[in-house]
Automatic annotation (TrEMBL):
InterPro entries, alphabetized: DHFR-like_dom_sf, RibDG_C
Pfam families hit by this protein: RibD_C
Descriptive protein name: Dihydrofolate reductase family protein
Domain Bacterial bifunctional deaminase-reductase C-terminal per the UniProt entry, residue ranges: 34-179
Length: 192
């Protein structure tokens, strides 16, 4: 059986995944609410393997190992760190304190094809833009889950979430509104 691979990414309405350092947006662009946080926790309530590129993994590991009080983190972030992770990197040699991480060096497409065949749990990747653009192009992303926050960051936005992706048809599988203003959209991407 082939494990399902979901690419999970946050975005502004205009398609940016982050903002310039010093911009005063705050986490979740200051738009998190109880439904969003509960939905995120529920998403990480079931066993799954996380898949990261090196840059996103470094950022996540830095946050998780920064000495921040775990009570200050949202529950879903804690559940993410407890999940086993595969980091696809040719530069990392250390798991940076991540409790159950494995570093895989080599071609990302080959690694994820193998993971999909061998894993008995679903695979999920957060952010890791260039990694997931390549995996989408190879037809390995089964679900693209975009959480769209109700902001436009045309002046301060960085990292267009689909800026390096190819052309895809998207079949809408699910949609939900969280806290009356944030959209979670789940698509099946098909390369064109």
């Amino acid at each position: 059986m082939t494990a399902e691979y979901t690419w999970d990414v946050f975005s502004t309405l205009d398609g940016y995944g982050s903002f310039v350092e010093g911009a005063d947006w705050g986490g979740y662009w200051s738009k998190q609410g109880p439904e969003l946080l509960a939905r995120r926790s529920a998403t990480f309530d079931t066993e799954q393997r996380m898949v990261y590129g090196a840059t996103t993994f470094r950022e996540m590991a830095e946050i998780m190992s920064s000495g921040i009080d775990p009570n200050a983190l949202d529950e879903w972030n804690l559940r993410t760190m407890r999940s086993p992770a595969t980091v696809i990197s040719s530069t990392l040699t250390d798991t940076l304190g991540w409790p159950d991480a494995t570093i895989a060096s080599g071609d990302a497409v080959d690694i994820v094809q193998r993971l999909k065949q061998e894993s008995d749990v679903p695979l999920r990747s957060q952010a890791s833009l260039s990694l997931n653009w390549a995996l989408m192009t190879a037809g390995l992303v089964d679900r693209l889950q975009v959480t769209v926050f109700p902001v436009v960051s045309g002046k301060t936005g960085t990292s267009p979430i689909l800026g390096g992706a190819g052309d895809f048809d998207l079949e809408l599988l699910e949609s939900r509104t969280l806290d009356g203003h944030t959209l979670e959209l789940t698509y099946r991407p098909t390369p064109r």
